[in-house]
């Protein structure tokens, strides 16, 4: 991958073989306008050794090093450490990017990492946008670049050994409680070429699927006939729709089973489904699926006194009944009447869209509960 020599870069430096190789790789190519970033999680007893290695190599090569030191109690870990550590690390990159006005971050993922990630994605049946690791990707305002993604781990270790360059060894990399470590322990060098070809084919297929899905979600809503007989496609369609509607962040931290349950409800024979999650609502309205922010539904209810009736709504009543004005049809549909029918029966018989029901303003007497205005 070509990098500009005059460009400023942040380089992620863990002290491990990959990041130490990356730094040497950059210096060899005369790319020296660098700010190195190291995060010491203090997760291992020997974590300080990693930091010292980073400090020494940066001092030797006159590279500015920024270090984030995290003190945390890991004894009763209740979260996924890898995900949490990644979030802390990338937030630190953003902080440093603002400080030095640099928006490009160089990260030391290699070819083995690429294949391991693909195997993890397949094993977890993840709904990914790309199989393996991309060479370039945006994280908010940062462009993440992986210059050594096509280099094998074996070649990295050989280079460091030949040059007698010191690096840290992360003892947790041998802990088979981590899925990546299990996969890594079984992955052989002679299998890499085969998996690279498989990844290319999978990404080619995925690109076609994404193109098909994009056309469907660009409408801003989904229809039941957008779904097919393939569950994986349907889950991907739903997940991409969530991302398109800017609610995907909720599902990043939840289990895939939640999306499966939503899909199951959507595909049921029920004509109306309302699923409230966090700050948004998913609504199935006959053959249509919508997503709204909760505050955008604007559900309201107000009781009007007699002086307000004539002024605002021009309602003529012989007696001074209090009037309720609302769009909360779910609350009142079984309690009020439209003509001689219950509101719920009128809506059902005329197949009034559920979205239209939210738009309809109900004006009725608090006493006799008869809707006084004409509904669409």
UniProtKB/TrEMBL annotation:
GO terms for molecular function: ATP binding; tRNA(Ile)-lysidine synthase activity. Gene3D superfamilies: HUPs (3.40.50.620). It catalyses: cytidine(34) in tRNA(Ile2) + L-lysine + ATP = lysidine(34) in tRNA(Ile2) + AMP + diphosphate + H(+). Residues 8-185 form the tRNA(Ile)-lysidine/2-thiocytidine synthase N-terminal domain. Its main location: cytoplasm. InterPro entries: Rossmann-like_a/b/a_fold (IPR014729), TilS/TtcA_N (IPR011063), tRNA_Ile_lys_synt (IPR012094), tRNA_Ile_lys_synt_N (IPR012795). It comes from the Bacteria. Keywords: ATP-binding, Cytoplasm, Ligase, Nucleotide-binding, tRNA processing. It is found in: Cytoplasm. The keyword Cytoplasm applies. Its EC number is 6.3.4.19. One of its GO terms (cellular component) is cytoplasm. ATP binds at residues 14-19. One of its GO terms (biological process) is tRNA modification. The N-terminal region contains the highly conserved SGGXDS motif, predicted to be a P-loop motif involved in ATP binding. HAMAP family: tRNA_Ile_lys_synt. Ligates lysine onto the cytidine present at position 34 of the AUA codon-specific tRNA(Ile) that contains the anticodon CAU, in an ATP-dependent manner. Cytidine is converted to lysidine, thus changing the amino acid specificity of the tRNA from methionine to isoleucine. Belongs to the tRNA(Ile)-lysidine synthase family. This is tRNA(Ile)-lysidine synthase.
